[in-house]
Design goal:
The complex is a heterotrimer of chains A (381), B (358) and C (339).
Chain A (H helix, E strand, L loop, with lengths): L5 E12 L2 E13 L4 E5 L6 H7 L9 E10 L2 E2 L8 H4 L4 E4 L3 H4 L6 H17 L21 H6 L8 H8 L3 H15 L18 H13 L5 E5 L7 H18 L2 E6 L2 H7 L2 E6 L2 E7 H6 L4 H9 L38 H5 L6 E2 L9 E2 L12
Parallel strand pairs in A: 3-8, 3-9, 6-7, 7-8
Antiparallel strand pairs in A: 1-2, 1-4, 4-5, 9-10, 10-12, 11-12
Chain B lengths: L22 H13 L2 H22 L1 H4 L37 H36 L6 H18 L2 H12 L3 H28 L2 H8 L4 H38 L12 H11 L6 H29 L1 H10 L15 H4 L12
Chain C lengths: L4 H32 L4 H5 L5 H12 L2 H14 L11 H36 L4 H15 L2 H16 L20 H7 L3 H37 L3 H8 L4 H17 L3 H19 L4 H8 L8 H29 L7
Classes of the chains: A alpha/beta (381), B mainly alpha (358), C mainly alpha (339).
């Protein structure tokens, strides 16, 4: 079994606010195997975006803080990497797509320049002109090993000049090559006649087009892991379908590993291989997506699935989960879900919240749930 | 002139909300606002101290001021005269060329200078603010009010073209020297800034849903303006006013410095004319205290108000407040829901609300 | 997309046309100040004039207002901007001194941009922590210092220890022809490096004083718009491309933040010009500001025509700066339509 691309172990993220400390992500552990799509689903405020942005350490450090845990990306714990080394991991290591494509493209820069910048970064890293990230236990230690050319560049100040850099630069395609590659990636995301949009600014294009450009920009750096933070939530339903189809095809073509965040079960069902459900900062269920849909092992998941309005159903009110999402600074004791749970017993309130462990015997090894009574879920209406 | 109406300041969802808070919570809210920033709190303490000292000088001068402007310092044994005596224990700021104790002079000038600055800024706020309210709210072209608004705006543009110091100097040159003339001159140059500020604020608030709702409910236009729009305009205006006090003070003293004989010294004592008088008549480097202490007084006062105003502006300007949430401890939950602001959220709009002319 | 070079001409042209009413208003206001608001001006402005001159002066002021304005306006257009008490015409004197002021103001502006804007970026980057507080104390101190205090302190206490000269724009009369009358530029064009260094030495301290006092405007605005821009997603996107922090801040974020900063160019120009009145006088810099200071009676020779002329010139300068700011904004912000 190949090593997973991403392995999050007991990650906790705290926010410092005026009235104290709030734990937005609480002891989350999950793995993204190579070449699989892992979806994270949850309501607004459950911590999924925080989790997504904590992985490449994108959260602003003063109010946010990684309290504990490890984020192991290709063998390196990103939590331990010093801040000035982080740009090496991002881009060619981890890429990210954001929700609001108008905000996530630089409004003052033309489309061509933005995509070309990403292409150039990848080209220069491949050629060794820019330092890049090499996975492994300690990627920045080259003692006792014959240095590959990129590592020689890495241990030198990054200035042009010298035989290695010169040879590397001659391998670069040049400006026409960059343009060709930009057009290739724009066509990869199914943009017709990409030459016409090269000189456009983001605000002149539609939302679906902007999102495709974002995807092209991320993919052009060929990341090992792509994090998609609600990429379709801001799009119309029809455009959403187009972008999802595009992403599925790209997954087949590039064998990328994706961590896909969404609040929409339908979207997740389309695209994910594995599914994790988050509630109040904790991962309450995790498993293959079909298994989770067919036999959820946590009452919250069951409640969410039941609340999806079914087509053509015209009788009775919508089934909603009673109560509301708790305020993260005033969490209930024990299991965070117990005030709203139909299966709640005394142990749910008194004991510490349950760990994400093997669920009932009826499901496979990989399907886990954080509930004291997973066998009762099947019997819920 | 960049037109503040060209790009909207922010979408309705992010605009300031009309708050009606009972007194106690309001005061605590403002206190927390002050405490949010170390510098603004320092400024606040300094301002309070300065105002208290000014009040003391006016109401009970004998507590702080040992030698009034009418008193001579008297003759000390051993020293024939105290003409231009350096700082000493008896005269902490030294004495000047008229044998007057500088410490007393500076303290006596404090309420006057503070009062002048407050008066000028206050009148500018009232006149400019009223005009700005009208110009911002009643700007439908083709109506009488619309025409008046256009006239107000064009006039304001013309006034704004003159640097305030220079226009003030020109008006003083026209009117002749004297305290009231200088105050009037500065007032005439200052009101346009408030017109632009208030107008920008009104424009931002004017199209909010609750204003439209009030109009639909049949509320009269003037009532909408005074009851609903005015409340939301007040906060940034008060902040700007606080900053302005320091600026007016500096401008006033500069005019007193440039034009000789504007405010005759020693009566009434005033910091700017202290410097001008000394500058004209005496060498500076030999008698450093005559320059240092009056300018120090101006500097400290202006700095105090500027610290307070600048710190307040950070907290009360909705744009920077939202942005500061990301970077410092602030009373707000972690950013989970992504910002759904439309184009206005990304467009760095020209500062319609806070003309950065400080 | 409405942003071709031809469209730019239309954009600039439209702004220029919008200038005209403001220009007219400036002249009208200057007229009002000098001819309407003035209280018994003649004996004050011309204290040494003969009685017949005084009578002539007062007769002019009794004429109907419109006639006065017509005469004033035509005089301006003719180039007759009045004379000083000794009879030397104002306009040529101002024209001769103007380049020196231009040099001073442009240098101060350059210093403000080069120092003030990065300070604003740093303050926004570390918002709420000690670098932010330090920057804020720095620019607020500059703002709270009256110009003359700053100038005097610089002359008396900084010039000597730093070995800088205390007045003028050249130590001795320059041996080359002054073509642009911009001291540093002239020396460089003439290839005379020692004089160029001398010119820089004379220029640097007054420019620094002007820049320090007015730096707050640019720093404050940069900080505010950076704070607005930094939380936006495209900054995160830029980081996720693998760019270093410096590149993200200065190439991506600042590019957007600077758009708003250009809007304060007009105010900045006004404050800089106002500051030259005192700074030039204290430093002995031969510019319009010193001329204005002396005209206001600072040295006992009031020259009312000269004073008003300088005020009008400065107002025109501010209007021009606002125009440039408006055009810059239209160029930098891709969302502004030019047509």
């Amino acid at each position: 079994m190949t090593e997973p691309v991403l392995s999050i172990e007991h990650l906790s993220v705290d926010y410092q606010i005026a009235s104290g400390v709030v734990r937005a992500v609480d002891d989350v552990s999950l793995t993204v195997p190579s070449g699989r799509v892992v979806g994270i689903v949850g309501e607004t405020g459950c911590g999924k975006s925080t989790l997504a942005q904590a992985i490449p350490r994108l959260l602003p450090e003063p109010p946010a803080r990684i309290a504990s845990g490890q984020v192991i990306f290709r063998g390196t714990d990103l939590v331990r990497v010093p801040a000035r080394r982080l740009p090496l991991v991002r881009g060619t290591g981890i890429g990210m797509i954001f929700q609001e494509p108008l905000n996530s493209l630089n409004p003052a820069v033309k489309v061509y320049d933005q995509v070309a910048e990403a292409v150039l970064i990848r080209q220069w890293r491949d050629a060794g002109i820019l330092p890049t990230f090499r996975g492994g236990p300690n990627p920045f230690d080259y003692s006792g090993r014959p240095l590959p050319e990129a590592a020689q560049v890495l241990s030198r100040p990054i200035l042009p000049g010298g035989p290695a850099a010169e040879r590397a630069r001659r391998r670069l395609p040049g400006r026409l090559g960059v343009r060709r590659e930009v057009l290739d990636f724009l066509r990869l995301v199914r943009i017709q006649d990409p030459e016409t949009i090269l000189d456009c600014y983001p605000h002149e294009l539609s939302g679906g087009m902007r999102q495709r450009i974002m995807i092209a920009m991320s993919l052009s750096e060929r990341p090992s892991l792509l994090i998609a933070d609600e990429p379709t939530s801001a799009l119309d339903v029809t455009i959403q379908a187009q972008v999802l189809t595009l992403m599925k095809e790209l997954i087949d073509e590039t064998q990328a590993s994706i961590l896909f965040i969404s609040h929409d079960f339908g979207v997740i069902a389309e695209i994910a291989d594995d599914l994790g459900v988050m509630y109040a900062g904790r991962l309450v269920e995790f498993g293959p997506v079909a298994d989770v849909f067919r036999s959820p092992q946590h009452p919250y998941t069951k409640g969410l699935l039941r609340a999806i309005p079914e087509r053509y159903k015209s009788e009775g009110p919508l089934a909603a989960i009673p109560g509301s999402v708790p305020n993260l600074s005033r969490l209930p004791p024990g299991c965070k879900y117990h005030p709203r749970c139909p299966l709640a017993q005394a142990v749910c309130r008194e004991d510490p919240p349950p760990e994400l462990t093997r669920a009932t015997a009826a499901v496979g090894e990989t399907h886990r749930s954080a509930c004291h009574f997973p066998e009762g879920v099947a019997g819920l209406p | 002139m960049v037109d503040p109406a060209r790009t909207p300041r922010e979408t309705p969802a992010q605009a300031p909300v009309h708050r009606r808070v009972p007194g106690g919570r309001l005061l605590r809210g403002y206190y927390r606002v002050l405490r949010a920033n170390v510098l603004s709190f320092v400024g606040f303490i300094l301002v309070v101290a300065i105002v208290l000292v000014a009040l003391l000088v006016v109401l009970a001068p004998h507590l702080l001021v040992r030698y009034g402007a009418t008193q001579e310092t008297g003759v000390y044994s051993g020293a024939p005269t105290l003409f231009r005596w350096p700082p000493s224990f008896a005269h902490p700021f030294g004495t000047d060329g008229s044998s007057l104790d500088l410490f007393s002079e500076i303290l006596l000038a404090l309420p006057l200078d503070l009062g002048i600055a407050l008066a000028i800024a206050g009148f500018a706020l009232l006149t400019g603010g009223s005009l700005g309210l009208i110009a911002g709210f009643f700007d439908r072209p083709g109506t009488v009010e619309g025409y008046a608004s256009a006239v107000i705006l064009r006039t304001t543009d013309v006034f704004l073209a003159f640097p305030s110091l220079l226009l003030g100097l020109a008006i003083v040159a026209a009117l002749g020297p004297g305290l009231w003339q200088v105050m009037l001159a500065i007032l005439l140059t200052w009101w346009p800034y408030y017109v632009r500020l208030v107008r920008g604020e009104v424009l931002a608030v004017k199209h909010l849903p609750y204003v439209t709702a009030a109009r639909a409910a049949g509320v009269h236009e003037w009532r909408i303006l005074l009851r609903h729009v005015l409340r939301n305009v007040l906060e940034p205006v008060v902040v700007y006013f606080t900053l302005d006090i320091g600026t007016v003070l500096v401008t006033f003293s500069t005019i007193a410095f440039v034009i000789p004989g504007v405010v005759s010294y020693p009566r009434p004592p005033e910091w700017g004319s202290m410097l001008s008088f000394f500058n004209l008549n005496y060498a500076i480097s030999q008698y450093w205290w005559e320059v240092a202490f009056p300018s120090g007084a101006i500097f400290v006062t202006a700095l105090a108000f500027s610290l307070l105003g600048d710190g307040l502006r950070d907290v009360l300007d909705p744009r920077t407040r939202r942005a500061m949430v990301e970077s410092v401890a602030a009373p707000s939950p972690p950013p989970e829901a992504p910002e759904l602001g439309g184009p206005a959220a990304t467009s760095p709009s020209p500062s319609a609300s806070m003309p950065e002319g400080m | 997309m409405g942003r071709s070079p031809g469209d730019l001409a239309i954009f600039v042209g439209r702004r220029l046309v919008q200038l005209l009413p403001v220009l007219l208003g400036v002249i009208v206001l200057a007229f009002l100040v000098t001819h309407v608001a003035a209280i018994d001006p003649c004996p004050r402005w011309y204290p040494k004039a003969s009685p017949s001159t005084l009578a002539l002066c007062e007769a002019q002021f009794r004429a109907p207002l419109l006639n006065q304005f017509a005469r004033y306006f035509t005089q301006l257009l003719d180039g007759n901007w009045g004379t000083s008490q000794l009879g030397s015409p104002v306009l040529p004197a101002i024209a001769a001194d103007a380049p020196a002021t231009l040099e001073l103001v442009l240098t101060a502006l350059l210093l403000m941009v080069v120092i003030g804007i990065p300070l604003g970026v740093v303050a926004a980057q570390y918002a709420g922590r000690w670098p932010d507080h330090l920057v804020r104390v720095l620019y607020l101190s500059g703002w709270a210092t009256p110009t003359y205090v700053g100038a005097i302190i610089a002359v008396v206490y900084l010039a000597h220890p730093l070995g800088l000269p205390m007045s003028g724009d050249f130590g001795a009369s320059p041996p080359f022809a002054q073509r642009t009358h911009l001291s540093v530029l002239d020396a460089l064009l003439a290839g005379n490096l020692p004089f160029a260094a001398d010119a820089v030495g004379h220029l640097i301290l007054p420019a620094c004083v002007l820049a320090f006092i007015n730096m707050g405007i640019a720093t404050r605005m940069t900080r505010a718009s950076m704070l607005e821009v930094l939380p936006l997603d495209f900054v995160k996107s830029a980081r996720m491309k693998g760019l270093s922090n410096v590149v993200v801040l200065y190439k991506h974020a600042l590019r957007n933040a600077l758009i708003t900063t250009t809007t304060v160019l007009g105010v900045t120009a006004g404050e800089l010009l106002a500051g030259t009145v005192v700074v030039e006088e204290v430093f002995g810099w031969p510019g319009i500001g010193a001329y204005a200071f002396q005209s206001m009676g600072g040295t006992g020779q009031p020259n009312f025509d000269g004073a008003i002329a300088v005020v009008v010139i400065f107002a025109l300068g501010v209007v021009l700066a606002n125009l440039i700011a408006d055009i810059l904004y239209g160029i930098l912000d891709p969302r502004v339509e030019w047509r």
